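Example complex used in Figure S2.
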Amino acid sequence: MKSAATPTPYTLNHPRWYRKRVSTYWWLQRWEYLRFVLREISSVFIAWFVVLTLLQIYSASRGPNAYGDFLEFLKNPFVVALNIISFFFVVYHSITWFNLSARAMSIRVGGKKVPGFLISGPNFVAWFVISGVIAWLLLRS
Amino acid sequence: MADTIKLEVSRYSPETDAAPHFQSFEVPFRKDWVVLDALNYIKDKQDGSLTYRWSCRMGICGSCGMLVNGEPKLTCATFLADYAPQPIRVEPLRNFPVIRDLVIAMNDFMRKLQKMKPWLIRKEEKPVSEGEYLQTPEQLEAFKQYSMCINCMLCYAACPVYGLDPLFSGPAAIALAQRYNLDSRDQGAKDRFPVLSQHDAIWGCTFVGECTRVCPKHVDPAGAIQQYKLTAALDWVKSVVMPWGGK
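Predicted assembly (388 residues):
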């Protein structure tokens, strides 16, 4: 006789549960996700600017001719286009980074939480001041 | 103003359906009704087989989380009037397996929550005769925000990392671990460290920030995770600079 007491084994993930696969294009489905993915992709353009700066220093160290070649390389329309795109991504990256810094840091002074704008604010101020000084150095002639 | 509103409700029967489908219901439109009231109306008057979770209908039990027009919401706090006259689409929370209609399986979340040891850990319990563990208002303030979590799992439904990597501990579990880490009465931060400082835990988070945006209790799980990343990183630096330091 079959025992009626045999319990159905407990399965952690029941085969009849419906699971929806995450679409490959999940990041296009919401504006917030797209903004996030653009922020992540901006790191590639940040890396490009770092490489570009290193190349600039390297060519400058190899004398005026090499530096002249480097400047010619910068005039290439493809490089100009890439740098314009990179510039916008770097600006976007910086703004989102400074805004996030306020949320990632919880600083308490005298038991009170320091408001976010006091953390991100100085970052923005430092960014504008340093950019201003560099612009002045480059454009003063 | 129309006197009815259309609800498109996701239905799934594990016995008969291969995948969920939408069923439309016309319910009375009343400006003091929330989506949960409309679901209760459907269940009472139109189709008793409609299955969903709810309990307190006042935003504290965390049972009635669903997707309303694709957005994770507590249905007891989401008014029909905010969507009318357009139809409202109600679906089960994203990123979880669906058991039936609007009911999701929460086993995974419960397991992850338990791993975080979300309770007060003491090295030695002091006897009751010595009284309570006292706390100043400042010490309470340090963790109070994270203690507001009602385990509604809206943050899991909003988190693309959890959707893509089911091993990720997720926002609420980490925020609750942090809630106890920051509690002056707790001494368990070192016990939680090995669970938290994992690729599947804090380091899996890429700071999308959606968990914080959808949180109905303003817990800010994203902030909790980033703050713990800082704690873990500083801990690592300390262990490198001062390997002899008390662990």
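The interface with chain B takes residues 12-14, 16-20, 22, 26-27, 29-30, 32-33, 36, 40, 100, 103-106, 108, 111, 113 of chain A (CB under 8 Å). The helical segments of chain A are 31-61, 64-75, 77-104, 116-139.
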